[in-house]
Design a protein that fits this description.
10 strands, 10-stranded antiparallel sheet, mainly beta
Length: 171
């Protein structure tokens, strides 16, 4: 089921990340994308700190009021901090994996169960990968798969592919 949200083999038009330039991801980024739209992933904070409670319909963060600071610790760990003005709201080291396609993959796949799967509810996965372009903006590709059903009848399953670009902020 994890592969239901697999990435398409999209050619990476950016130089991409590698072991020598992994530190280029370090920086402050706007939470709202400058390019791309999404239904389920509305902000950069949604990629790293997703609200996994289906009964909370309110966003966890005000989309435009926060920014994120990313710092690579090593090729397997990325520190993510989410700020609202000067107040720290989230600080966590996340597991990542650098692959040969120039993307850094978030290893936490964000599996979420909603209600009682296939009785009245379902499950979903969110997988994300990212890289930096020549302008130092963050390119995020997120796949969101969900499957819902009622009374043991699967009534809907879909995979959404999102390409979003987040602007790097000046320090």
């Amino acid at each position: 089921m994890i592969n239901c949200a697999g990435f398409r083999n999209v050619k990476n038009n950016n130089e991409g990340l590698n072991i020598n330039n992994l530190g280029s991801i370090d920086g402050n980024y706007d939470n709202y994308p400058i390019e791309g739209q999404s239904v389920y992933i509305n902000s950069l904070a949604d990629v790293f700190d997703r609200n996994t409670n289906m009964f909370v319909f309110k966003s966890k963060y005000d989309i435009r009021a926060v920014n994120l600071k990313l710092k690579i610790i090593n090729e397997k760990k990325l520190n993510v901090k989410i700020y609202k003005k000067e107040k720290l709201l989230f600080d966590k080291d996340l597991s990542v994996k650098l692959k040969n396609d120039g993307f850094l993959y978030l290893k936490e796949k964000r599996f979420m169960i909603e209600a009682i799967p296939l009785v009245f509810g379902g499950w979903n996965f969110q997988k994300s990968r990212f890289t930096v372009d020549k302008d130092n903006n963050l390119h995020v590709q997120t796949n969101y798969f969900f499957c819902n059903g009622m009374f043991l009848i699967m009534n809907d399953w879909k995979t959404f592919h999102y390409n979003l670009i987040f602007k790097r902020l000046q320090p």
